[in-house]
């Protein structure tokens, strides 16, 4: 079986037989997978009345553990967006009643963002379905292939400088 990228590689081999386009195969496939993953996740989250970024905010707060809150700065670090974008995102999910801002009791200048009871209910409901959806997306690979791919992708990310904060 061939994918779209195979066709591109064949064209390059025909047009420039002096070059090895193998790196294009890897990068092209990862890029195409990213686009297909985004499409599938957007569709999934829309079915739950969420945008992907809304899920990301709720999931980040849920992973933080009880009381499911972080400072705006910590959220900014975890979300990898600009300070203006995080403020806008928090405004929007707060307007939906999923999070609320709270003054930090230890430092009144610090704002903490926490899940509301409704936000906790939503993320606890959606996360199990989300994992089932991701299993569906990856179903073309066996469990062993998925584990091997995870190791390879981690190595590539680390090699490009991606590491925990």
Automatic annotation (TrEMBL):
Instruction: List UniProt keywords, sorted A-Z.
Output: DNA-binding
On whether DNA-binding is a keyword of this UniProt record, the answer is: yes
Using the record for this protein, list the coiled-coil segments as residue ranges, or answer none: none
Q: Which domain of life is it from?
A: Bacteria
Query: What is this protein identified as?
Result: DNA-binding MarR family transcriptional regulator
Query: Transmembrane stretches, by residue range?
Result: none
Q: Which InterPro entries match?
A: HTH_MarR-typ (IPR000835), MarR/SlyA-like (IPR039422), WH-like_DNA-bd_sf (IPR036388), WH_DNA-bd_sf (IPR036390)
**Any one GO biological process:** response to stress
Single GO MF descriptor: DNA-binding transcription factor activity
Q: Residues in domain HTH marR-type?
A: 23-158
In this record, what's one Pfam family? Answer: MarR_2
Report the source organism. Answer: Longispora fulva
């Amino acid at each position: 079986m061939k994918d779209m990228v195979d066709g591109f590689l064949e064209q390059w081999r025909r047009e420039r037989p002096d070059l090895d386009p193998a790196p294009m195969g890897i990068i092209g496939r990862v890029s195409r997978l990213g686009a297909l993953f985004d499409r599938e996740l957007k569709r999934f989250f829309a079915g739950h009345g969420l945008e992907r970024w809304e899920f990301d905010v709720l999931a980040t707060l849920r992973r933080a553990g009880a009381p499911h809150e972080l400072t705006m700065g910590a959220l900014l670090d975890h979300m990898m967006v600009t300070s203006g974008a995080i403020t806008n995102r928090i405004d929007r999910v707060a307007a939906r009643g999923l999070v609320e801002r709270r003054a930090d009791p230890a430092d009144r200048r610090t704002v903490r963002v926490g899940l509301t009871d409704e936000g906790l209910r939503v993320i606890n409901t959606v996360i199990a379905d989300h994992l089932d959806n991701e299993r569906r997306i990856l179903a073309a690979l066996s469990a062993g292939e998925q584990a091997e791919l995870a190791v390879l992708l981690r190595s590539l990310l680390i090699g490009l400088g991606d590491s925990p904060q």
